[in-house]
Amino acid sequence: MREWVSLLFDLSLAASITVLAVLLLRLFLRPVSKKYLYLLWLAVFIRAVCPFSYSSPFSVFRLFSFMRTEGGQLTAALAPAQAAWLSSALGLEGALSQAGESAELATSAAAQTGAEAGQAAALASAGHLLPAVLTAVWAAGVLLLLGWGLVSRLRLGRKVSLAVRAEEGIYETDQISTAFVLGFFRPRIYLPTGLSAKERDFVIRHERVHLRRHDHQLKLLAWVAAAVHWFNPLLWFALALLTRDMEMSCDEQVLDDVGEGQRESYGEALLSLAAPAGFPAGGPLAFGESSVKARIRNILKYKKKGRIAAAAALILVIVGIWFCLSNPSGQEAVSMIGGADGPTSIWLAGDAEDLTEEDRLAAFVQLWAAAAGNRNAEYVYESLSPELQARADELGIERTAAVDEDGKPVLSMGWSSPFLAGTPVIKLSEGMPAEAEITYPGLTSDMIWWVWKDNITLEPEGDSWQITGWERREFFEISSCEAFQEAYEDWTPDYMSSSFEDHSFAEELVLRDLAGQDPEYYEEHYYTPEAALEWTLHLEGGEAQTQMEEEGKALVTYRFQDGEIEVRMIQPGLSQGSDVWLPELM
After folding, report:
1. Any idea what the Cα angle at residue 523 is, between residues 522 and 525, rounded to 5°?
2. Could you tell me which residues come within 8 angstroms of residue 384 by beta carbon, excluding any fewer than 6 positions away?
3. Alpha helix locations (H) across 29-51?
């Protein structure tokens, strides 16, 4: 279900961007015939239902950095800030921000209070249930709309069930007040009785234009697409404009046939046969169905275009449709892997076939770092050389008692906590064999930052690379100045601005302290600058000397045998009555 929710989001987002593009194109194409504007709307509804398309360097989606092409499919690759904004806009920031960490929180529940463990379990449940809930709500909306459309169609069918055949494909009845086309595969034109000869001629000409162009089928399909995306107001807005442009284009075609001298008579026919309120918008094509006043204004100012102008307009529309339907080339996904936090994609600028060996190597290392950080044992194992695979258990990759679909043992690696909580920092050397140092920022459920590193050696293997050397170093206990500098050389813990729901780690720790959660724990680890420094940065074996600077601020000098460091400590909740100390951003 999570995959379906993601696909529906991608389709709806792509269709929304296409709506905006078409609206912009219409500003430049206002003078042209409405039949060309009508064609543009087809791109919107194709985008709404078709996840695959061709790639082109001339695509509207190249203007949006978060839209990417993966295997011919357009997908959204939201940055963390964009994902956070979306979650906030949907009112789901609590559940969504916590769901990704729920597994780790549950695993660490033994170290929490009973209330915290219950909260972790609830968040884990919410993370699993959310896609199912969203799918159920979406399906209910679609079924309601389809049910309403079916009932409306049946009611209209009963009204014309006794209509009398006037000629081939045309029927008359006194049960309707406007003319329309009804039927998908075997469409019929239905006319109200009592029309004058001129009105009858106008109506039949208009509706036959619809039939020749298969408008009755296109409109119904567009309505179904809008119903699938019922939650997206831009799709309904696009459907309304498509219907209006469709009707205006038919009006223009009739005037081309009967002559512009019939404008006033045609406008009078539109007014007299305007569709009644509540006419089913997703079904029949009614003569006076949509925006009658706007259509009359369009009729009064319409002039038939010359061949050159018509050809130029058609070319512009074809270019616009190509622009909207093409996926952005040069934004291809190199690969995708799964991990504890879900699939991870690496995106590179430039067409896939134009990527350099350096680009591909960098992408491979990024993917491997994401897999190793998220404990994706299968991916990591397959990337190792045969020599390292033989030593897999020494490297922390273990064969479990479970087996996969092919009967192979399921692999596991590493620990459950701390868990990866940021983008790994990679330093990649030049030359072959290549070497890379990867720094992993991690968290535990008590909101303490941790860090570990991998040093790997890579050599080419066919069209890819393999890991021929791998050393992991864990900086969970730092007892020297050299280790401290190495641990935090490329990444430093940030307790002041790291986000927890809608506030920082520092604010959350203060709130927990003020709530009296495990007072002995806080008193032991946070109530003095020296203890907080050792606890939050994992220092041990040294001597601390504190110099108070002002209320709530202190400079701590921590001396190891091989040197010393200085860290400024602050009390972020002092004004609220909390004694918690934390390091400022180093």
Report:
1. 65
2. 392, 395, 466, 467, 470
3. 34-49
CA-nearest of 148, 174, 179 to 161 is 174
C-alpha torsion angle, residues 221, 227, 233, 239 (rounded to 10): 20
**Record: fold of 333-474:** Nuclear Transport Factor 2; Chain: A, (3.10.450)
194-197 contact pairs (CB < 8 A, 24+) = none
Question: Do the Cβ atoms of 53 and 322 come closer than 8 Å?
Answer: no
- Token pair 């401290």 is found at 484
For residue 407, give the 3-state DSSP assignment.
coil
Tokens in use for 312? 């130029």
What is the per-residue pLDDT across 361-413, written as a single tens digit (0 to 9) for each? 888 898 899 889 988 888 899 999 999 999 988 888 888 878 777 777 888 88
Local structure of residue 476 (DSSP, 8 states)? S
Q: What is the DSSP letter of 411?
A: E
Measured between its terminal Cα atoms, the distance across the chain in Å is 43
Specify the domain boundaries for CATH 3.10.450 within the chain: 333-474
In angstroms, the Cα distances linking 362 to 318, 366, 439, 582 are: 39, 6, 15, 36
Q: Is the pTM of this model over 0.70?
A: no
